[in-house]
Every structure is written in C-alpha cells, then in structure tokens.
Design brief:
- Helices cover 5% and strands 57% of the residues.
- The protein contains two helices and 13 strands; from the N terminus they run ββββαββββββαβββ.
- The strands form two sheets. Strands 1, 2, 3, 4, 7, 8, 9, 10, 11, 12 and 13 form an eleven-stranded antiparallel beta sheet that branches.
- It is mainly beta and 236 residues long.
- It has one domain: Carbohydrate-selective porin OprB (Porin), CATH 2.40.160.180.
C-alpha cells in the first residue's frame, strides 16, 4: 500500500490482518464438518500532536477491529481456553457477577495474572536469535468465576533454521483449573492445551504459521481433541 494510505499530515495508519483456518480432527464435541475460517482486520491510527501544531510530546491513539467467520470452539472443540488467540468470546457480569453455583450475586469481580518472558540462550550473530522462555499464572476467586487458576509456559526459538533468521518456532502448554464449586456441580476439573507451531516470515509483511494443538479434556467435559490448521498474518 502506498504512502498515502499510511500517512496523512499528522495522522499515521497501520493495517494488520490475521486469518486462521482450523479443523478439529478428533475428539471434542464433534468432528463432522469441523473446519472453520476466522479473520480479524485491525486498524491503528495515531495522531502526533506536535505535527498537528497542538503540543509537543503527545499522541492520540485509536484502535479498531472487524472480525469475520466463526470459531470451532462452541460447536466442535468445546475448549474454554480457545485454541485461537484471535477469538473474542463475550465476557458477562463483570461488575455484577453471578455465583458459579447460581446461588447469589456478587457486586464485583477481581483477579490477577503474572508473566515472565526472557531469553535463555542467544546466538553469536544476533541477540534477537536464540531460545526464549515464557511463563504465566493467573488466579480469580472461585465462587464467582468458572476458572479459578491457570498456569502455562513454553519455549520459543528465533532463527533455528539456517537462512531463516527471523522465523520462530515453539512449544507451549497451558492448564486451567475449574472452580471447586463447578467441579461439585458438573465434575469439571481441568483442561490442558499443548501447542506446537512454526512461524515462517516470507517477507516484511506476510507470515504463515502452521499450528497443531492437543487439548486434553476440553471444558473438563469432552474427550481429548486435536486441532490442526494454520494462520497467516499481513502487516501493511
């Protein structure tokens, strides 16, 4: 896209499109016709206040998103964690929250999360290439949330293959623990998602990412599922 699409006076624009195609190959709720496409178009606008002759050092930011397609999660996989991170599942009753067991109403909700992300080993040619580690943990009160806590982590390598210095590949695993109140009602205990991927950056603006995920006990209710597919990213 030409410069006119990216810069208009003090306003700059960035366009980002992500598309995912996945199939539920086994388990979960159903595998019949279990292929779906999902896409997100993101638009970011920035206004430089100095360039607009307003004041120095300021920036106004507007972010917009438009989604297309559907996800496999509710009708085929049944996973709570959602196999695709571009899925947006509405969250309800944040300020006025129903109790997990349906008895009572809470006036608020809360929780916390922590993440760690660091390089373990770097290559001599570049500090950006090498093996990295990530870890995350989250918690929320079990009396008003379906998921009480989650823990996850994994390894990511940048530039593993010769001549592919900006490609990344990785493996990760995440487990969520359902509320004890929910377990008493439905028998749901935990769900585990394990993922492997390879992100090939074909040029400065286009990437393709084959992805395979094994989901143990989706929603703590269904048989183990295996979801396979790929995503592509366009950054203009």
């Amino acid at each position: 896209m030409g410069e006119a699409w990216h810069q208009l006076g003090p306003i700059s624009a960035e366009y980002f499109y992500t598309g995912v195609v996945f199939n539920n190959t086994r388990g979960g709720i159903s595998t019949k016709g279990a292929t779906r496409y999902r896409g997100n178009l993101d638009l970011a606008l920035r206004l430089d206040t100095a360039a607009a002759n307003w004041w120095d050092g300021g920036e106004l930011y507007v972010y917009m998103q438009q989604s297309q397609g559907t996800t496999l999660t509710p009708d085929f996989v049944g996973d709570v964690q959602s196999y695709s991170n571009i899925d947006t599942i509405p969250k309800h009753q944040w300020l006025t929250q129903l109790a997990v067991d349906g008895n009572g109403v809470f006036e608020n909700n809360y929780g916390f999360y922590a993440t760690i992300d660091r390089m373990l080993v770097t290559e001599e040619e570049s500090d950006d290439q090498g093996l990295g580690l990530f870890f995350q943990y989250c918690w929320a009160p079990s009396d008003r949330n379906q998921v009480e806590q989650g823990i996850g982590g994994g390894l990511i390598y940048t530039g593993l293959l010769q001549g592919r210095d900006v490609d990344t590949c990785g493996v990760g695993c995440s487990q969520i623990q359902f509320s004890p109140e929910l377990e008493a009602l439905t028998g749901q205990k935990s769900e585990i998602a394990t993922e492997v991927f390879y992100k090939a950056r074909l040029n400065d603006w286009f990437s393709i990412i084959p992805d395979l995920q094994y989901i143990t006990s989706p929603s703590g209710l269904y048989s183990d599922a295996m979801v396979a597919g790929f995503r592509f990213e366009v950054n203009l």
